[in-house]
Write a structure and sequence with these properties.
7-stranded antiparallel β-sheet; 3-stranded antiparallel β-sheet; 3 helices
Length: about 170
């Protein structure tokens, strides 16, 4: 048993990232993230937000402060990428809400997509130049995925943020 464990660990290269996989998605984090669930109040009633967070601010070996994936499932009859009458307005409001929630200034706002589902990529100036928050939003049917990294302004952009953002894949 010990030999099998040793052989398995021998194939893990130093510096490899942690692959978080669910039924619906996968994403790479620099280290295993902490999972949490929060109840949030919204205009359409209470919602459940699932979070996966890696706090990279401790240890000083990472160019970024935080890596985070959040996803929320909306009532299918109210929010769905296939039936919502104004998806761009919904995504724009989400982006503006994110900037307002942190008291930041929206620096960029670009429409994107993933596997045919609509999305938005934004950058927010946080605390007057202290940090940059880069976020990608994807509305996949009735689920909103938000991928976020926070970086000291002088270290943005960097390869770790790009790797994290680009590693998000839908599985079904």
């Amino acid at each position: 048993m010990t030999a099998l464990l040793f052989l398995t660990l021998g194939f893990v290269k130093p510096g490899d990232w942690f692959l978080l996989t669910s039924e619906a998605f996968q994403i790479e984090f620099p280290k295993k993230p902490i999972a949490d669930t929060k109840a949030i109040a919204s205009d359409i009633g209470p919602l459940e937000m699932k979070l996966f967070i890696h706090d990279a601010s401790q240890g000083g070996k990472d160019d970024n402060f935080v890596y985070m994936l959040m996803h929320t499932e909306y009532p299918d009859s109210l929010v769905n990428s296939e039936t919502l009458s104004d998806v761009p307005a919904f995504l724009k409001a989400s982006a503006e809400g994110a900037a307002n929630n942190v008291g930041g200034k929206l620096l960029s706002d670009v429409d994107i997509e993933l596997d045919g589902f609509p999305g938005k990529e934004i950058k927010i100036d946080f605390r007057d130049g202290l940090a940059i928050i880069k976020m990608r939003f994807y509305l996949v049917k009735n689920k909103m995925y938000v991928i976020q990294a926070i970086t000291e302004t002088g270290k943005f952009p960097n390869k770790s943020v790009d790797r994290f953002m680009d590693s998000f894949k839908l599985l079904k």
